[in-house]
Write a structure and sequence with these properties.
This protein is α/β, with parallel strands linked by helices. The chain is 47% helix and 11% strand. The chain has helices spanning 2-13, 17-22, 43-49, 54-58, 61-75, 88-92, 129-142, 154-163, 171-179, 181-204, 222-239, 258-263, 277-284, 302-316, 336-348, and strands at 80-81, 97-100, 104-107, 147-152, 209-213, 247-250, 268-270, 288-293, 322-326. Helix 14 crosses helix 15. The protein starts with a helix and ends in a 5-residue tail after the last helix. Bound molecules: coproporphyrinogen III. Coproporphyrinogen III binds next to strand 3. Coproporphyrinogen III is lined by residues 35-40, 49, 54, 81, 83-86, 99, 101-105, 150, 156, 213, 215, 329.
Amino acid sequence: MTHDVSATAVESAITSPFLRACRGLEPAHTPVWFMRQAGRSLPEYLAIREGVPMLESCFRTDMVVEITMQPVRRHGVDAAIFFSDIVVPLKAIGIDLDIVPGTGPVVADPIRSADQLSTLRDLEPDDVTSITDAVKGLVQELGETPLIGFAGAPFTLASYLVEGGPSRDHRRTKELMYRDPELWHALLGRIAAIASQFLRLQVEAGASAIQLFDSWAGALSPVDYDTYVRPHSAAVLESVADLDVPRIHFGVGTGELLSRMGEAGADVVGVDWRVPLDEAIGRVGNRAVQGNLDPTVLFAPTDVVHERAARIIDAGRAAHGHVFNLGHGVLPATDPDALTRLVDFVHGYQPES
Ligand code: CP3
């Protein structure tokens, strides 16, 4: 009995609609935030980034705070996503890489042999003090709005490290996986340790949820996902279980992997737009879902945007919890006002009961 009373007290103490939905509790309204909300669709972002390379801006406390705040101020979203990049912890341990505009992360010496594994040393708190300082500053500035910390999942980071840059087919990455499973597991184990530490440091500095991005996992067959990838993603998610923050796990084109990504230890499974949300909910079972409006719908007339959004909110009623989001990141050409209108619509929409 006592247990029930205190559980209820804890539950009602959580007021953030985003955190409530992540935990399967009824929120005051459907929460919404956007992947890549802190970025190129905003003129104020382009202005502050003028002349500052992407990676440099990720290590500048003042810029991280300001860019993270911009979409929260402008759109009134229910969560902030920390402005950084999945390759930032790799840069922080000294890997020679850059983020090339219009291309993405490019690694100078791709990792393809056992000798090179030693370059992937553990991430130490001192490597990222400017970043953890930004998290601490943000938590003060955000007040009631939760901050989502994030990391790249082992497979997606391995793809950049092995290919040396973005890849359509992940050929070299998969070749390594099949040719030398021992090296593969050692590589993913190293990356998992780095990602785990990056997440832990963000939560210890005040982030109240985390998202593990396995953006390119959709390139894998289910058997390869289970054999070569899931154990390492599961290790990352498990490594932060003791911190008791909701763990979101997302990938693109992962319709056939959704149940497996949930079983890797996610509290919330991110869904892209290729799967109808009601089907996704059936696949993830007793976990919350996040998604899943096609980002290009934001280029449609407002009535079309609202019709599609309403459909998603209605479907989300059947979930253990639903966080409204896009099915992938905001496209740079998106009209920021379309995002603000969508936030207002999601907050005001009364679902069919
Ligand atoms: O979501 C947010 O607003 C927070 C910031 C964030 C960025 N990258 C900033 C960024 C987050 C969460 C990421 C994650 C990320 N980075 C992922 C996983 C999410 C996803 O989109 O699938 C991946 C795969 C990367 C790697 C990466 N970094 C790519 C593919 C690119 C785009 C390259 C391009 O120019 O088209 C980047 C660069 C990047 N990361 C930008 C931003 C705002 C653009 C940099 C710029 O403004 O020049």
